[in-house]
Write a structure and sequence with these properties.
The protein has 307 residues and is of the alpha/beta class. The protein is 41% helix and 14% strand.
Length: 307
C-alpha cells in the first residue's frame, strides 16, 4: 500500500472549500503530510493555479515528489512551515492551509516512536535526521523540566509523579523504547481515565516539545499573515486545545486591530484590523468521526485577510 493511502485526511472538503477563492491563485499547504488536502486543492485549481507544499517529514517529501512529478502546478519543499515566507511566491498567496499534529502513517509506524501502541525506538521527531530525539531529551532533562513539559503541553495533572518515575527509572536502565516509557508513565498514574491510555497526554506533550510545535505555530501564523494577499484565506486545523487556542487568539487579535487605549478617539479604519474570522469553528461530522476516530478532536478555524 502506498504511503498516501495510509492516511485519512480530516475535514477534507470543508478545508478546501474554505481555502479556495481563486482557481488561478497561489496556495500553500504548510503541512503536506500524505497529500490529501493538496490533491483536493489541485482538483480545484485551473491550469494557471499553483500550489506549494511543505513538510518536515522525509517520508512526506517522498510522496510529495511523486505528486510534483505528475502535476506541474505543484512544488514540494522539505522544511518547516516557519519557512513559508522563503517560498518563491513574491506576489503573495491566496490561501494557506495548516493541518497540525501527526499523520496516521507517523503514528502507526513503530520506528517513528510517536505511539505507545506499537513498541519502537523512542524518537518522536518529525524529521528524524535533525534535532534531539525523545530518548535523548529524557536521558538528560531535569525532573522539573520533564514535569513542566508534561503539564504545559499535555495538561497532565500527574506530571510530577510521572517525571519523578522517569528520572528514577532511567537511572536503572536508559529509556529508549516507547513501550518502556509508556509502562513507566502508566505505573506512575494513580487514577486511570476510562477509554484513554495513561500515557496519552504525556506522549503528546513530549512530541510537541521535541518538535517545537507550538513555538513554530506562533512563528508560522505571523509569517502567514504577511504573505497572504488581501482577501486571502488562512485555514488552521488543530487536534489539541493548546494549538486551537493559539489559532483562535491570533485571529481574534488581528480582528480587533492595534491595542490602543480605550479613551483614544480613533476611527474604525484606523485600528489596523487585518483579519476577519469566517464563521464559527468547524468540527468533523458524526459520520467522519465514525469512519475515522482520530478525527474526533479536530477543530478548524478560517480567517480572511483584510489588508
Amino acid at each position: 500500500m502506498k504511503l498516501a493511502e495510509l492516511h485519512k485526511t480530516v475535514l477534507l472538503t470543508e478545508a478546501v472549500d474554505a481555502l479556495l477563492t481563486d482557481p488561478e491563485g497561489v496556495y500553500i499547504d504548510g503541512t503536506f503530510g500524505r497529500g490529501g488536502h493538496s490533491r483536493a486543492i489541485l482538483d480545484g485549481l485551473a491550469d494557471k493555479g499553483q500550489l506549494f507544499g511543505i513538510d518536515k517529514d522525509p517520508s512526506a517529501i517522498t510522496v510529495g515528489k511523486d505528486l510534483a512529478g505528475d502535476d506541474h502546478r505543484f512544488v514540494i519543499y522539505h522544511g518547516s512551515f516557519t519557512e513559508l515566507n522563503e517560498l518563491p511566491a513574491t506576489g503573495g498567496v491566496d490561501g494557506i492551509l495548516l493541518d497540525l499534529g501527526v499523520s496516521s502513517p507517523q503514528l502507526d509506524c513503530p520506528e517513528r516512536g510517536f505511539s505507545f501502541l506499537n513498541d519502537g525506538p523512542l524518537d518522536m521527531r518529525m524529521n528524524h535526521a535533525q534535532g534531539e530525539s525523545a530518548a535523548e531529551w529524557l536521558a538528560r532533562a531535569e525532573e522539573q523540566e520533564i514535569s513542566r513539559v508534561l503539564w504545559e503541553y499535555g495538561e497532565e495533572r500527574f506530571s510530577r509523579r510521572m517525571a519523578r518515575a522517569i528520572v528514577r527509572e532511567r537511572e536503572i536502565e536508559p529509556i529508549v523504547t516507547t513501550a518502556r516509557l509508556a509502562s513507566i508513565i502508566a505505573g506512575a498514574c494513580p487514577k486511570k481515565e476510562k477509554g484513554k491510555h495513561p500515557a496519552t497526554r504525556a506522549f503528546q506533550a513530549i512530541r510537541i516539545h521535541i518538535n517545537r510545535e507550538l513555538d513554530d505555530l506562533i512563528e508560522c501564523l505571523d509569517k502567514a499573515l504577511e504573505l497572504l494577499k488581501p482577501g486571502g484565506r488562512l485555514v488552521v486545523i488543530s487536534f489539541h486545545s493548546l494549538e486551537d487556542r493559539i489559532a483562535k487568539r491570533f485571529i481574534r487579535k488581528h480582528e480587533k486591530g492595534d491595542p490602543l487605549p480605550s479613551w483614544l478617539p480613533v476611527r474604525e479604519d484606523q485600528l489596523n484590523k487585518r483579519l476577519k474570522a469566517l464563521g464559527k469553528a468547524i468540527k468533523p461530522s458524526e459520520t467522519e468521526v465514525r469512519e475515522n476516530p482520530r478525527a474526533r478532536s479536530a477543530i478548524m478555524r478560517v480567517a480572511e485577510k483584510l489588508a
